[in-house]
Design brief:
Length: about 150
């Protein structure tokens, strides 16, 4: 039996799906996979890609830029300062943001510039992963089956 997934940012509901079968996301403490009936959990999230499998065979890639995840047996709610579906990302703007952040780091290394670069690189990985044969619903069962360049750090 699927569960309900909601990904919410301050500006909008990025995703609301009542037919989610599986999600994979990176928490601050490591990779997490959630299936229906999961034990309740509340955790902080890292900036990274999230894989959402729903409706039996549909798969979406979502960028999640930190925040928190509340897991219940029949519902997962993610509250994040920024999140977007990979299909919504403008690749040119993401590359420009990465270049700007790298220039800032080269000039003066700051936590803000490093964070901006990390977020831009997550967005670029999301764009690059859309349509990639390695990420298909039948192959996503655990972190070991997802290519390292998609899993993140």
């Amino acid at each position: 039996m699927p569960f309900t997934l909601e990904i919410i940012t301050p500006g909008r509901v990025v995703l609301h799906d009542d037919q989610t079968d599986f999600i994979q996301v990176r928490g601050k403490e490591g990779e997490l996979g959630v299936l229906p009936g999961h034990t309740p959990l509340f955790t902080a999230l890292a900036d990274d890609l999230m894989i959402v499998r729903s409706h039996g065979d549909r798969e979406d890639i979502v960028t999640v830029m930190g925040g928190f995840m509340d897991v219940r047996p029949d519902r997962v709610t993610i509250l994040s300062p920024a999140a977007e579906l990979a299909a919504e990302i403008d690749e040119v703007r993401a590359r420009q943001a990465a270049e700007r952040a790298q220039l800032e780091i080269d000039r003066q290394r700051t936590a803000e510039a490093e964070g901006a670069l990390e977020r831009a690189l997550v967005r670029l990985r999301a764009v690059e992963s859309v349509g990639r044969e390695a990420i298909r619903p039948s192959r996503v069962h655990g972190a070991e089956q997802i290519p390292p360049d998609i899993r993140g750090k």
